[in-house]
Amino acid sequence: xxxxxxxxxxxxxxxxxxxxxxxxxxxxxxxxxxxxxxxxxxxxxxxxxxxxxxxxxxxxxxxxxxxxxxxxxxxxxxxxxxxxxxxxxxxxxxxxxxxxxxxxxxxxxxxxxxxxxxxxxxxxxxxxxxxxxxxxxxxxxxxxxxxxxxxxxxxxxxxxxxxxxxxxxxxxxxxxxxxxxxxxxxxxxxxxxxxxxxxxxxxxxxxxxxxxxxxxxxxxxxxxxxxxxxxxxxxxxxxxxxxxxxxxxxxxxxxxxxxxxxxxxxxxxxxxxxxxxxxxxxxxxxxxxxxxxxxxxxxxxxxxxxxxxxxxxxxxxxxxxxxxxxxxxxxxx
Length: 333
Hints:
The chain is 46% helix and 18% strand. The chain is α/β, with parallel strands linked by helices.
């Protein structure tokens, strides 16, 4: 059977065209490619269908986010191997076909390839779980640095693979390139549709991990223009998950806390929420010191503190529904 590739579109048809070009220029057409459109992008559909008529197009009736859109693609897919592929990726050296062939003949239930930045430096692709998801707190402003320092001092096991060399077993895989066996999905279930964006692949991998092992093939590569499509959607800037002061940061924090509740339980969720609340005054103190004594006149520091603080207060409004575990669509866009 052919591998099925699912790409979610939200006003990112230009990126998708580049992504598809990187796939098809290698002369490999034995894929089923499904684009799931979250943005009613008729112009993009025409451009993509005109260049690649074999691509299937599924239109969602609203901006359904990553999990729901990918689930729609998975339901429509016919392949025995499913690849969730970000629109802001460029596939190299027949990585999809090679990854599918290896995964199909292996004991693993899911696999990824080594993601690269545009300067070809390695991008974190494979990760490990920590008790209670404590590594999730390293993204906190000010407090996160202290947590990382303590982790280094105490020689805590690394939470990720900085650069995979050959085959590396991991607990969860970056959702930019996440390939899964259909048989594993049938057992573990689809992505959790409470998530809008961020953390859904982590929660999904935690369920896949109960079915079997996951790995990264470090000798296969894909460029990932990290955050391009999400930044456009949220009107944000910067890469990664460390800017928690804007709307994108709000979604990152909310999704992360929902994941902690689902994966580790109410106690760990409350612990994480307390850490967020504790960070507000600590971050304020650090901001005062920076602006008054170290870097006077930096208004941006105050804007970042204010944005983070407001986001934390907003999240507090979700506490009852998160604790209840009732179905809820955690979307802020």
